[in-house]
Amino acid sequence: MSGEHVLIVEDEEDIAELLEYNLQRQGYVPTSVHTGEDGLNESREAGPDLILLDLMLPGLSGLEVCRRLKGDPATEKIPVIMLTAKGEEEDVIAGFDAGADDYVTKPFRPKVLLARVKAVLRRGAARKVTDEDVLEIETVVIHPGRHQVSVDGQMIDLTRTEFRILHFLSLRPGWVFTRGQIVRSVHGDDYPVTGRSVDVQVASLRRKLGESGNMILTVRGIGYKMGD
Question: What's this model's pTM, rounded to 2 decimal places?
Answer without folding.
Answer: 0.65
